Every structure is written in C-alpha cells, then in structure tokens.
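Thread: "does anyone have the structure for this chain?"

Original post by V.I.:
We have the sequence but no experimental structure in hand. Need at least a predicted one for the grant figures.
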Amino acid sequence: MLIKRLMAATETVAALFLLFIALLTAGNVLVRYAFNWQIPDWFDGTQMLLGIALFWGIALTTYQGTHIAVDVLWEMAGPRGRRGIDLLAATITLAFLVPLAWMVWVKVGGTGSQGTMDLRLPLQWFYSAAAAGATVAAVLALLRLVRLIRGDTDNDEGRPGGAGETPDGP
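Reply from O.Q.:
Generated one for you, tokens below.
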C-alpha cells in the first residue's frame, strides 16, 4: 500500500515536471511569435525542469524494471537464470544510484547563491527537487532489490513492479 502511494506520487511529480516543460516551451513560443517577447529564463527553466523530470523518471523505471533494455539473454535464461540476472542488475543499479543521489545533494550544498540568468531564481531550488528524485530512485532501487530477494512478483514475467504491465509489455 505504501509502495503504491509512493509510486503514484513519483509518477505525479515526474508528469507534472514534464507538463511544466511543455507549458513553458509552448508559452514561450506563443509570446515570442505573438508579442515578439520571450519568457524570462524559459531556456534555463526548461533545462532545470528536464533534469528534475529525468531523476523522477529514473526512480519510476528503476523500481518497475520497465526501462528500455534488450532482454535477449534474460529471455533465453530459465527462471533461475532470470532471477540471477535481475538480482545482479538491481544490485548494480543500486550501487550506482546511491552515490549519484549523494553527489546530487553535494551539488545542492555547493550551489551557494547561484541563480538563473534572467530572474536570478536560486539554482538550489531546482537542484533540490532533482536530488529528491535521485534519492527516491535509490530508495526504490533498494526496495526492488529486496522484493527480488524475497521473490515477490507482480507481473507475468516474474519481475517486481510494473503498474499497468501486461504479458506483452507496458
């Protein structure tokens, strides 16, 4: 229940930041062509929002195991081999995401008073939102690894996660 709420919240955050990017870009195009003016910091803003959306998206795909991958070896392996591959992949993913999350938080602490070009919005706000996404990604990677170790599965392929997955894919 808690994991489902965390996943729903993570999906919502990622989707909202993608929506903000689309609105900011579309709004800038509209005012640029209609009024020969541009939204201040639209470019810096979309870059920062994209970084945030990516980290939150990484959190989703890490837990669900739905990232883009070529599963030729996994498909040819038997159930025991698949479990081994999944455990190895989850362990490696966790081993990379924990230091990544740590380093993004270090970056947050090192931004000082840096701001965006036009409006001087503190970069720390954007980096903090991205760092939160990286932290959620590391936590979800750990949860995925624990579920794999326990043998908990939610879908027909024997992989944990996968809200909305079918045997043919997401």
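V.I.: this helps a lot. Residues 2-150 form one domain.
O.Q.: and The two ends are 21 Å apart (CA to CA).
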